[in-house]
Amino acid sequence: MAYIIYLLLTYLITVHVGMRFYKNGRLYILTLMKGDEATTDSINRILLIGYYLLNLGYAALMISNWETVTTYADMVRTITTMTGRIVLTLAVVHYMNMFVIYLAGRKNKSLTHHKNY
């Protein structure tokens, strides 16, 4: 039962947050890429695929390292710990991605600025 609850929570978080990142992140990336829609859409799709793969892999690792659950309290503790780990990991990865995209946008701006001179 614990596996089912954990997988359901992980699935809901993955799909819901992934779609929010995909929809809302496009505007952020589009701004940094100076309106280049083709590059923006490519980056956005790659980020979504990477996000899904990371989630699947992380969920599989968490289940393979699952502790034996003998009581209801153990089940709640294990599920919250595993879910918390995946959420924190995804948050860190998300902000790292946004920082890299920000740096790429700045580099793009710098290259465009130098071409004008």
Description:
The model has no long low-confidence stretch (mean pLDDT 84). It contains 3 helices and no strands. Helices cover 88% and strands 0% of the residues. The chain has one domain (2-115). It is mostly helical and 117 residues long. Helix 2 runs antiparallel to helix 3.
Give a short overview:
With 117 residues, this protein is an all-alpha fold.
Give start-end ranges of low-pLDDT stretches. Answer: none
Instruction: Report Rg.
Output: 19 Å
Oligomer: single chain
Give the fraction of residues assigned to helices: over 70%
* Helix-strand string: HHH
Number of strands: 0
Give the class from helix and strand content and strand pairing. Answer: mainly alpha
Shape descriptor reads elongated
Beta strand %: under 5%
Overall pLDDT score:
84
Strand count, sense and barrel status of the largest sheet are: none
What is the first-to-last residue Cα distance?
65 Å
SS element count, helices: 3
How many separate structural domains? 1
Features:
mainly alpha, 0% strand, 88% helix, 117 residues, elongated
List strands and helices in order, with pairings.
Blueprint: H1 2-32, H2 37-64, H3 72-115
